[in-house]
ATP-binding cassette domain-containing protein
Amino acid sequence: MSAVQTMNPLVQVRDVHKSFDQLEVLKGIDLDIMPGEVVVILGPSGSGKSTFLRCINHLEAINKGFIAVDGEQIGYRLRNGRLEKLSANGIARQRRKIGMVFQQFNLYPHMTVLQNIIEAPVGIHGESRQDATRNALQLLERVGLSEKAGSYPRQLSGGQQQRVAIARALAIKPKLMLFDEPTSALDPELVGEVLATMRDLAKQGLTMIVVTHEIGFAREAADRVVFMDDGKIVEMGRPDDVIGNPQHPRTKAFLSRFL
Ligand code: ADP
Ligand code: MG
């Protein structure tokens, strides 16, 4: 028997607006992301990239439009045909579908690598310590840090710490991973190992939204590149098109800095 499968987008973003007081930072963002897709967001500083990721991950509330992840509207649920705001529990459940990695790795300094990774699964999501530990050790292998389970963050290089942060974000088994300039705080010689880890995750089919200035990574790993400027998506498409042959003057100006 053959069946036609229609895939639904994992992420749906419609006409999203976000202001901080008088300052409108997101001015109508529309974006659909399919399961397994890797989307790289490029754009100048202040264009709203971080704010956009933070809205997806419940860290900021939007003023207009909607964001849905895995078929559920962020921050709301449907009940008897009406949208109602989620309780703290409901929000925690939705957030479990999303992992986020920041420029600053924010590991807990007083905890070992292993403790950092099992903290959320055990402490927040009620997983058994045994299961969480088994999973954490597999994740450490995946990011190439098996021998560091008992180390403290200060004993690791920046690149290693960021790979632990990636493992920690993966520990809740998210359907979507958000990366906000994950290599921007690293010494240049440590950038490659983190990008290599991210490239592996992309190959393994993880759905990822990556804000980065690493054009090489965008070219190689992205299925789609989005160029944001002044709170809007001004250009979007395959990396070869957007990076290799940008159409919008803003995209051209931005990319010319990297040539
Ligand atoms: P990007 O990540 O592209 O550099 P951001 O999303 O961080 O851009 O910021 C976009 C704009 O929103 C900037 O002008 C920034 O100063 C402003 N902004 C971001 N967060 C806040 C906040 N919490 N309060 C007020 N303004 C903010
Ligand atoms: Mg930013």
In short: The first helix runs from residue 49 to 56. The mean pLDDT is 95. The two ends are 52 Å apart (CA to CA).
